[in-house]
Amino acid sequence: MKLAVDAVFYVREGFNFExxxxxxxxxxxxxxxxxxxxxxxxxxxxEEGYYYRxxxxxxxxxxxxxxxxxxxxxxxxxxxxxxNEIIYTLTCEIL
Length: 95
Description:
Blueprint: E1 2-12, H1 17-28, E2 32-46, E3 49-61, H2 68-81, E4 86-94
Antiparallel strand pairs: 1-3, 1-4, 2-3
């Protein structure tokens, strides 16, 4: 059993993705497997400035099934790290 976290974000120029990604790993704790990391790459030019697409896919091995509240808490902590940025997708599910 594992928790699968899949996310894509659009962040503004200057966003420190590496620092935030390390925080995501801290939230998830031990026994994580990084399946993919997409470092910021220019994806959108708007009147508000440049946006860079980034994201990740991470699996976390679980010893027990998490409750919906625990999964939602993890998701909210990740959302908070990307506050003021565009969260395109963010899924956390038990597989």
